[in-house]
Structure formats: C-alpha cells, structure tokens
Amino acid sequence: MQSNFKSGFVTLIGRPNVGKSTLMNSLIGQKIAITSNKPQTTRNRIQTVYTDEEGQIIFLDTPGIHKAKNKLGDFMVNAAERTLSEVDVVVWLVEPTDFIGTHEQHIAEILKNVKTPVVLAINKIDTVNKEDIMMAINTYKEAHNFAEIVPVSALKGDNKTELMKVLFKYLPQGPMYYDEDTVTDQPERQIVAELIREKALRLLNDEVPHGIAVTIESMKYRKKAHLFDIEATIICERDSHKGIIIGKKGAMLKSIGTKARLEIENLLGNKVNLQLWVKVKKDWRDSDFLLKNYGYKDNN
Fold first, then answer.
1. What sign for the dihedral angle of Cα 23, 192, 10, 81?
2. Regions of the chain where pLDDT drops below 50
3. Residue 60 class from Cβ within 10 Å (0-12 exposed, 13-18 middle, 19+ buried)?
4. Can you tell me the distance from the alpha carbon of 137 to that of 121, in angstroms, rounded to the nearest whole number?
5. Cβ contacts of residue 145 below 8 Å, gap of 6+?
6. Burial call 148-169: b when 16+ CB within 10 Å, e when fewer
7. CA-CA distances (angstroms) from residue 267 to 60, 198, 229, 259, 261?
8. How far, in Å, CA of 164 to CA of 188, rounded?
9. Dmax over Cα atoms in the chain, in whole Å?
10. Separation of CA 101 from chain center
11. Residue 201 pLDDT
C-alpha cells in the first residue's frame, strides 16, 4: 500500500427523495442501497466502500432528514444527524433550484454546528440548463460556507470523477479499513430484505409503502441445486393494506416476488426460490419492540 494512501468516512445527507442512494450506488459502481421515487426509502444507515490506488472511502447513506411523525421517523432522523460528527466529509445533496425550501433550511441550520468540511453536490443537472445550475450555486452559497460545490447527475453519472477527486482532497492519510473487494458492511440477509421492500415500494400505491417492513424468516443454500431458498414476510399496518399487497388473486404479491427474485439472484450469483407472506402488525412504526425486531436498531 502506498505511503500517501488516504482513507476516511463520507456521509451523504439531504432531504428525502433527493437521490442520495442513487448517487452512492453510482459512486461505488454497484447497487447496494435501494431506490424509489417515494420519500423515506432509506431507513437505516448504510455503509458502502469504494477502494482504488489513491485510497478508500467509506460512504454512509443516511435516511432523508425530515420532521419525524412517529418513532420510526425519529430513528431515521437520529441516524442521519448523528453521522455528521462521525465523518471526515459531509456531502449535502440538493436539487438545482434557486429557492431554498424548508427542508433545506432545516439542514442548513443543523450544518451550522458542524465542523466537518461540507461539499455541496447539486444533483439532477441532466434535467436543467447551465444557467439554472449557476443560479442554484449562487443561491446555496448564501446558505453555508461550503468547502466545494460540485454539480452532478446521480442517475447519469455526470461529474462523478470530479466529485470523487474533491472527496479524496479532504480525506486524511490513513489505513485501509476494509479489504479492497469489500463493497458494503450490510449482511446479505439485510440487502435481500431491502430489495424486496424496494420492489414493494415501486409497485404499491402511495398510502401503503411507508407502513411496510420486510423480515427474512429463513435463507438456506441448497448446494446440489446451487439454489437459495428464501422465506420472507412483508409486514404492514392494516388489514386493508394486506389486501392491496396481495392483490387480486395474489397478482401484486407475485409481481413483487418476481421482480425481487431477479435482483436477489443478481446479488447472490445463484438461482433463488423466493416465498413471500404478508402479516399485519398494527402501528409497528410506533413500537420500540417491533422496530428493533425489524432491524431498526439505534446503535447509540
């Protein structure tokens, strides 16, 4: 390992649904964090690892910072805000507008107390012209004293190399924390559960997704068949939601299962036999016991 090898932690923050998970997947070149166009897709703090000759960056993808409405919301906001003091660089991802909304004002307030260098990444530049990008840069310059401002497109990968260059600039010299072939600290079971939840988020209508969680009941590998048998349960909050998730003659559940299975096979590099069930647990998002049970543990 070269003597000037750099390593450190970078957190991605921003309001819900601004493209943090898409950006992180793009930067590490592999899909680890799930994405959808629904807010609050990311619930846990997810760590991914990028390694090259220059150094190693451990990215923390955090839930969107928002005003919490229940215990799950509190957990998500705490997970996001706590990372700010634990990292070497903060990347604040925003959209290219000349107006700073209440979500962004709230984040700007939080960042006032942060000593860490903050890089502003203006996302979705593929959707606007250069003048709009310049206006957004000028608007945000007023909100915080940024170390750097980098316009990017998480979806198309525009300016990805420039952003990585900027991040390495602010990282200290240090050791390799993970083997160079490590891409995430997430257990496979957790990624599998999240991929199922992603498909449900994408296929279900608006009122159901916030109230679902996915648990993996069992995950066994059959050596002779080169096959994973996975049993998973989709948890929802109401009987009416259960009906929507299952769908007419089981069509929705089958569709969720089919789409999830393809991605899980891609992840595991093996065939998958996926069995899905649906259970109702009323108001689980406000139950400490059930939140812990479904993997939303506070690490403090």
1. positive
2. 38-39, 41-42, 299-300
3. buried
4. 10
5. none
6. bbbbbbbbeebbbeebbebbbe
7. 20, 14, 14, 13, 10
8. 27
9. 62
10. 22
11. 84
**Amino acid present at 84:** L
In angstroms, the CA 115 to CA 111 distance is 8
- Using CA atoms, how far apart are residues 68 and 32, in angstroms rounded to an integer? 25
Both tokens of residue 26? 């793009």
Angstrom distance (rounded) from CA 289 to CA 85: 28
pLDDT value at position 68?
A: 62
Residue with tokens 């915080």: 144
Q: Which residue has the tokens 């750099």?
A: 6
**Cα separation values, 35 from 21, 114, 155, 196, 202, Å:** 6, 28, 11, 12, 9
One-letter-per-residue 3-state SS of the chain: CCCCCEEEEEEEECCCCCCHHHHHHHHHCCCCCCCCCCCCCCCCCEEEEEECCCEEEEEEECCCCCCCCCHHHHHHHHHHHHHHHCCCEEEEEECCCCCCCHHHHHHHHHHCCCCCCEEEEECCHHHCCHHHHHHHHHHHHCCCCCCEEEECECCCCECHHHHHHHHHHCCCECCCCCCCCCCECCCHHHHHHHHHHHHHHHHCCCCCHHHCEEEEEEEEEECCCCEEEEEEEEEECCHHHHHHHHCHHHHHHHHHHHHHHHHHHHHHCCEEEEEEEEEECCCHHHCHHHHHHCCCCCCC
pLDDT for res 73: 66
